Amino acid sequence: MSVAGLEFALIILILVSAVITAMLRDTLASIIVFGAYSLGMAMLWVVFRAPDVGLTEAVVGAGVMTPLLLLAITKLGREDVERVFAKIRWGPLLGVSVLVVLLLLTVPALPEVGDPDSPTNTHVAPYYIENAYEETGFVNIVTAILVGYRGLDTFGEVTVVFAALVSVLAVLRREELI
Amino acid sequence: MTLTTTALMASAIILAAVGIIALYRATVGPTTQDRVVALNVVGTHAVLVIALLAAVFETHEIIDIAIVYGLLNFLLAIAIAKFSMDRGEVL
Amino acid sequence: MKRRPYRESVIVYTTVRLLAPFVLAFGLFITLHGATSPGGGFQGGAIMAAVFFMLAFAFGFHTTRGWMGEAPVKWLVGGGLALFGLMALASLALEGSFLDYHPYEALTGIGVKYWGEIVEVAIGLVVSGGLVGLFFLVWGGMDPEEPGPGSEGPVPEEGEAS
Predict the structure, then answer these.
(1) Hey, is C101 helix, strand or coil?
(2) How many domains is chain B built from?
(3) Which DSSP state fits A89?
(4) Chain A positions in Cβ-Cβ contact with residue B17 (cut-off 8 Å)
């Protein structure tokens, strides 16, 4: 029961920080609150017993995303603002609210978390769980799937990182990184 | 759940709730320094909550995430502190 | 409020100098230990890139660039991708299938796990090099001639090259 209590507290933290991030006028304050959002997400992934995802969120949120965003606002400039929150525009808010309500209506149709009969748990997942250790020797099944069974996908991902760097160079019309 | 895990879980919930209060300072804090300290409070609470969860779930691998946060919170603080200082530039 | 000129804090760069080796070691641990604990190449590579960010924030961009140069980024990204591709293709030459580690085990007697770790290291190289390269590019911006923030950098009194 108390796991549910912690989930509740963390989801409140995440929702509040997400809304504040969107509403703050000052970009630097917005980035700081976004850091709090990523901290909450990492804690929530740990509660859901997904330590690999939690570690990724921790590293990317605290170590990579915030420095890159800070660098970006030094280039964009930061204007002095007199009011803390941005003015709410009611038309877009109404549109987004309708979309959120429509999406929330589909939530009851999703299988329960951890349901053994859900489609994600009935096709390839049982095979990985039963055979991953014997076939690869990896204790961490996430890594076994990442570099073993789904190695081709990972190869594609790494190529995407490479292509991102090359394409930024191409867009900036530069041949040197520095 | 034993009494110990219940107590650990209750402390984790309280820490997460206090993190929400720190968000108030991060939002209205008149200066950037207030906001950096508030973010550091949330970061320290994240380290503690993750370490408490490692004790509750009895999975010591989770401690790795707490260590990463312990190391990277410092980076977060100096990055924001550096960019909020007046250097005769835009920021 | 009277504004003073910016001066680098001694505390920041001393702490970064103390902390950076440990963060780098932890990134290597996460990369190499992905088989038995959470983590792997993506996370470990991002931590190693964070070490670079830390140094750049503490010592100034141009100082860090002077220590590092541009070549390591290119070698990390290109070499990592080449290592991954080599691991994928070499098993074809050993009559296995694409990205199959079992031919290597049959050839050398070293378990599949350790060949997977080589792939993790390759991922870590690409991710760390890619993030550092993006950091360079964002800092440089559209105009390479324009000096970025922190261009003057701090001037530590001694032991700068350590």
Answers:
(1) coil
(2) 1
(3) P
(4) 9
